[in-house]
Request: fold
Amino acid sequence: MDGIPGILQFRARFGRQTVAYPEGPARFPERFRGLPVVDPRAGDGGRAGAAVCPTEAVRDAGTPGMAIDLGRCTFCGLCEEASPGAIRFTRDYRISGRTRDSLQVNGAAPLLAAALDEKARKLFGRSLRLRQVSAGGCNGCEAELNASGNVQFDMSRFGVAFVASPRHADGLVVTGPVSENMREALLKTWEALPAPRLVIAVGACACSGGIFRDSPVQSNGMPGVPEIPVDLWVAGCPPHPITFIDGVLRLLGRIEGDSLRLAGTGIVEPR
Ligand code: SF4
Reply:
């Protein structure tokens, strides 16, 4: 069949491609790693894991205060291999927080970003336009942010979309460790956004410098750019599109609660 009927028939064969999230389960690849759980009393207490961690993200191994800094973590899995039992990664994709410190986790509680205040939710909650600045990273985060808008994840169904000009944006999304060459461009983009404006730091580089941390030609991410206040920190290297979307929806107050039981499905996602 040709023409428009043929196109419609072709499309109908594909069925619905968009993930059921948030009403139903999102699909994650087998190798996906989410929120880690640590147990300093198990195995070697996480000491070998701390020793092999390329970003020094494992803190206070073997002590009751043991934690993993998801702002630094690249989710490489080396610590889990080195310290089985003491460190385990779950498939909980909800790993964003309102403060940089909140990304220090031990897995005892889910990491859920709190919502903006009511005035900001009224302003941004139904429609949020974002300008993205790649501040010197590897472009892995950009690839996932790009995927957030594709037919599978389709964040525009929540009224969230990227725009080309900061003048048309309500918020700034920053990726990368903020290299020296991108610092001025980032600050200028921030100044071009009309107030009030949100800022979202995405990925290990933007949260801490990631694998570039302490290089002299970058700023260790947004903590090194105090001129720009961050409203949401999204962990990952890179974050999965659903992690990003979930963080934004929680920031906007569109998703609440900490249950992994997904509304209406009876499905409890494995942790
Ligand atoms: S998964 Fe994260 S905490 Fe573990 S070794 Fe890799 S970077 Fe370090």
Remarks:
- Residues 52-55, 57-58, 68, 73-79 surround iron/sulfur cluster (CB under 6 Å).
- Confidence is low (pLDDT under 50) at residues 261-267.
- The radius of gyration is 19 Å.
- Residues 206 and 221 are 4 Å apart (CA to CA).
